[in-house]
Amino acid sequence: MTTRLSNATLMDLPEGVRVPGYDRAALTPGIVHIGLGNFHRAHQAWYLHRLMDTGAAHDWAIVGAGVRAPDAKQRERLLAQDCLTTLIELDPKGRSAEVTGAMIDFVPVEDGNGPLIERMADPAIRIVSLTVTEGGYFVTPDGGFDEGHVDIQHDAANPEAPRTAFGAMIAALKRRRDAGTGPFTCQSCDNLQGNGDVLKQTVLGLARLSDRDLAGWIETNCTFPNSMVDCIVPATGPSELQLVREFGIDDNAPVTHENFRQWVIEDRFCAGRPDWDRIGATFTDDVHDYEAMKIRLLNATHQVVANPGELLGCKTIADCMAHDAIHGLFRKVALDEIAPHVKPVPDMTPADYVDLIDSRYSNPEIRDTVRRVAFDGSSRHTGFLLPIIRDALGKGASLQGLALVEALWARMCAGTRVDGSEIEPNDPNWDRLSAAAAAAKDDPAAWLDQKWIYGDLAAEPRFAEPFTDALRQVWVDGPEAAIRAYLAD
């Protein structure tokens, strides 16, 4: 028997399920968060929930928001259970469940984003935060602002009825400026190095296309703190829905997560902030080294293991780590070809961090699918792996394994596993990638000629030559043989 999750039933949940210790009816909003996926609810919302449990931050509750059609479905699911979420920690030593309540509302999702703009214009809102994925910031391959994108052009021409989250933020800030109610902090919580700087580039770039005076006001008054966020949070599917029922809870939007979290944040908030550091977050003026360690050693190696895992039929990241060749690829590339380009941070060396990631990836309780991790490789390889390759080229360092990793991605995008089964499209640019992958089977240069991904790397023989050799070997001998040859070298 299960209990339907709601405010009214919190005290009826089974013994052992942790529930909010604060009066949710007394909470008032202070944050609008755009992108109410699993990661936000397991990470940023959890920190605020635990802070509220100490009796603090009750005027910082979260109002959820979204700008895509699927967000309307998420709004419906969460409002039906009073915006409560069950978090299930998947620790090999034992699972536990906790209901979090820091979120109190969800803005209607409408064309033109009128309700979202109105809510962000409310002076009570002092932070607007986002998790819109690494590829959602309209960044060109060289790191600039993509002002030619059709959605950006739409928002520049229709600033009062924008399509994008950034256009809605600008419209709300215009109302606040005109009303004299002040700015809000713009806070990215996505896996991007310098995510606050990237968000600032996008917001100011879009604002300048329609109102340069407003752009100047935003630049002067708003803050865009950089941050590093870390927690492995699988997608929710049938097994997760069944798992929450096993805890005696009827929750249509549960979240599973590992027993590890980290949040490192620049302390630059123009309108105040919650004291997240009381719950374990780190405020620092130097986020960059933390970001670089996490993005290069965790986000990059997720692709290192997921792409061959997909080719070899592994279902989860833990399955990949149980495969000795993929596990060996992870450790050799991470330690020999990525760690040399990563600085240590307080209490953590790059080698120690590789060991930590090894144990986290290997957690059999985390059903983090290879498909989820390999999704949107065109953004993730561009953002996480290619900068390391460029650093290696600049320093004359080894990149044989990184070239192999790119070859394995090219082979994956051909759309079949080694057993002949089909790999379903798994990238917003899948058609372009699969066409290039098919051509690259006979002519590896066809893959590197995708300048929208690789830029000028095709003209760099120290990368192009080992990539060509690796891709040919992957096609002739198979991915596993290619990996084992690299490990034996």
Automatic annotation (TrEMBL):
Residues 30-277 form the Mannitol dehydrogenase N-terminal domain. It holds the Pfam family Mannitol_dh. It comes from the Bacteria. GO terms for molecular function: oxidoreductase activity, acting on the CH-OH group of donors, NAD or NADP as acceptor. Signal peptide: none annotated. Keywords: Oxidoreductase. InterPro entries: 6-PGluconate_DH-like_C_sf (IPR008927), 6PGD_dom2 (IPR013328), Mannitol_DH (IPR000669), Mannitol_DH/Oxidoreductase (IPR050988), Mannitol_DH_C (IPR013118), Mannitol_DH_N (IPR013131), NAD(P)-bd_dom_sf (IPR036291). Residues 286-475 form the Mannitol dehydrogenase C-terminal domain. This is Mannitol 2-dehydrogenase.
